[in-house]
Specification:
- It catalyses: 2 GTP = 3',3'-c-di-GMP + 2 diphosphate.
- Helix content is 45%, strand content 19%.
- The chain has 331 residues and is α/β, with parallel strands linked by helices.
């Protein structure tokens, strides 16, 4: 069992983070838009990048495998993709991007010298949003690229709004469930650990009854901010699970790393100093935490991970206020 303040507060390089609202990172539009140009003709790549230099930062790839790797690593705002590549055709690249939850929302514009309508149909069926024909016309290219960037900005804003808990600004329960299922499948393929922290504001219902709903809302907003402020990586997720219960998903984070992150959350909530009176209170709002880690296996579900972290949270709550329980503590 860990009580408040028993672990040092790790720096940003020691902890995992949480994206605000728990959804896709804020898009990089205008001069900060990121476009991946994929073509095996290096001179054409450079020409396209020069054409778009006032609208975006461009990156180049010259084959399908490199394009897929760069999309997974950098999540560009748009991909301008040649149909004919040395290792695989652009249609296959597009289908693979759309099949991967990490990259499926990146719009793809095909560039091709072929004017056959059947090929365009094939491209749209693969998931493309538009076609640009070679030889490249700079004005048309810029116009079509900017149209798709504008649409992506609007769609991303809508996705963030739908995934956000309206009160606290972190992800809502639906977004958490979707992200957990997605990360579980990805980490099962990659063999990487996935950690889950559950944070329960101590006796929140009693706090709400004693101080009123407005004070309760403010309390939850401040607690959510404390959670979000302790973890920094964009691939992780903070969510409101329900009532005064929050959950954090930490990708590629082992048990020790998750315990360090949880310890900082525990201390940050106590350091808010939210006043609380009553015979069973110690003057401020605290929280209990459960922390669990798993390496997902193909064909399994995350239900066991949720059950485990809820069991640890239950143990923490039975021990009093401001407690944290991990697998190591529960042995």
């Amino acid at each position: 069992m860990l009580q408040d303040g028993q672990r040092p507060h790790p720096g940003p390089d020691q902890s995992s983070g949480v994206a605000e609202a728990g959804v896709a990172p804020e898009p990089h539009f205008g001069h900060h838009a990121r476009i991946l140009v994929v073509d095996d003709q290096k001179l054409l790549n450079r020409f396209i990048c020069r054409t778009l230099q006032n609208d975006a930062t461009c990156y180049s790839a010259h084959d399908g495998e490199s394009a897929l790797a760069m999309c997974r690593e950098h999540l560009p705002d748009l991909v301008l993709l040649d149909v004919e590549l040395p290792d695989m055709d652009g249609y296959r690249v597009c289908r693979l991007l759309k099949a991967d939850p990490r990259t499926r929302n990146i719009p793809v514009i095909f560039a091709t010298g072929n004017l056959d309508p059947d090929d365009e149909v094939k491209g749209f069926e693969a998931g493309a949003v538009d076609f640009i024909h070679k030889p490249i016309n700079p004005a048309i290219t810029r116009a079509r690229v900017n149209t798709q960037l504008t649409l992506k900005r609007q769609i991303d804003a809508l996705r963030r709004a739908l995934a956000m808990d309206g009160l606290t600004g972190v992800a809502n329960r639906d977004a958490f469930d979707r992200e957990l299922a997605s990360l579980w499948d990805q980490d099962a393929r990659d063999g990487r650990p996935l950690s889950l922290i559950m944070v329960d504001v101590d006796s929140f219902r009693a706090y709400n009854d004693a101080y009123g709903q407005a004070a309760g809302d403010t309390c939850l907003q401040r607690v959510a901010g404390a959670i979000r402020g302790q973890i920094h990586r964009s691939q992780d997720l903070a969510a409101r699970y329900g009532g005064g219960l929050f959950a954090c998903l930490l990708r590629d984070t082992d048990a020790d790393g998750a315990a360090s992150v949880a310890a900082t959350i525990l201390l940050a909530i106590r350091n808010l100093g939210i006043e609380r009176a009553g015979p069973d209170a110690d003057g401020i709002v605290t929280a209990n935490l459960g922390v669990a880690t798993a390496i997902p296996s193909p064909g399994t579900s995350p239900d066991a991970l949720i059950a485990e972290v809820q069991r640890y949270l239950g143990i923490a709550k039975s021990l009093g206020r401001g407690c944290m329980i991990t697998a190591a503590d529960a042995v």
